[in-house]
Amino acid sequence: MGFQRFTTCFLLALCILSQSLTKGTFGFACNWGTRTTHPLPPEILVKLMKDNGINKVKLFEAEPTALKALGKSGIQVMVGIPNDMLDLLATSVNNAIAWVDQNVSSYISKIGVDIRYVAVGNEAFLKTYNGRFVQSTFPAIKNIQAALIKAGLGRQVKVTTPLNADVYQSDSGLPSGGNFRPDIQNQMISIIKFLSQNGGPLTFNIYPFLSLDADPNFPKEFAFFDGSASPVVDGSISYTNVFDANFDTLISSLEKNGFGSMDVIIGEVGWPTDGNSNANAKSAQRFNQGLVNRIVKKQGTPKRPTPPEIYMFALLDEDAKSIDPGPFERHWGIFNFDGSMKYPLNLGSGKSLVGARGVKYLTKQWCVISSNTNVLDPSFAESMSKACTYADCTSLAPGSSCSGLDTKGNASYAFNMYYQTLDQRKDACQFNGLSVVTNIDPSPSQGTCHFEIMIDIGKHESKSTSSAAPRIGIEYFMVMLVSSFIIILLSLFI
């Protein structure tokens, strides 16, 4: 009887431990972009990811400081190769071997980075590239695959290539009519076949926001997961949101070409918070909460009930990104550039989004327009132009968070962004006598416009690098708790 009681308690303890560890393995995936003038220290960013249950990350390039911070973090990594390297990698397998040795093998073996994928190129078949990378993408993929095999990583690290959703289309306008664009049909089939043979997934970026932004007649509610737009009926399937319809157009394209079971990853999906009238925190919260809910519920699409791996775009805002697609391009982050929260998200299991900790800032002072400045001063426009050429003024774009400022307010915002971007240098607030430094926050009391204070990179760089005592994780605590429990039980029955 005593042994039976012990067995029951032992199994119960194992169940408790198993449930705890299982919860610990569930998580989210996110993109980590590094196009920023004042980067959040990588160690803080990695901690931010772990605090929010993000256990997979995609890097757009093999950025050394990011990879070093990810060493032994428990976070799985997809390392990207920029498009401007495709020609080099396509022309010589030796170039690919050198790249893999420097950017994959060394980080895995020496630092303990858990690299799972190499993403060759980024949206290389995008229509706006006019075929620039069409001929080099597949040879680069083959050479990187050969390099991984040579390095003994062929099973551990898989090759993929992130593509934009514009590589497929539907002549009928319905998901069932999906097929790949005729101009890249042959290249797509060759890539898909090769990846399939080598166990690599296809990666696609889907942006409901861009669908809405590009078409003034697009039904706005159809962009959201909880929308009330009229469904799109395709045979026996009714689509209630553009994400499902877009993804299933891809699946139809794969089915038509004999690859219906091909593994697919969503490499980028998200919603920006600034840059035009559709890009705001309210819409971003609505969209991303719907996306998180689907991830937590493991919800797929009508044609693929099993959900794909989804990398949310993006982790942080990037104030140095190209704005060719639009001013919103610098505002895709779930978090602000400094890791502070933009809006709350319910992550499931009673967990909520939390911001970064330990961030050091520059002095609380701002550069603003002088009260006696005449906006008709000949140097006024020149000063504004200078500020916005070297700093991020996208929040002043029509429909953006600071678009409601008056002329002097616009100047103050621009001057301050320039001042902060140049680390509050004394000469950075000298706009032909039009500006002054103030310690009174000029951010409007109403609305969402915010005058930034940048991260103090110097303080973070000078911080001692000595290791603090490691924190004991909940998994370790539960193991010790159960072990102690078992020891106590054993002592009762021996």
From TrEMBL:
Residues 365-451 form the X8 domain. The keyword Glycoprotein applies. InterPro entries: GH, Glyco_hydro_17, Glyco_hydro_17_plant, X8. GO terms for molecular function: glucan endo-1,3-beta-D-glucosidase activity. It comes from Cicer arietinum. It comes from the Eukaryota. This is glucan endo-1,3-beta-D-glucosidase. The chain crosses the membrane at residues 473-493. Residues 1-22 form the signal peptide.
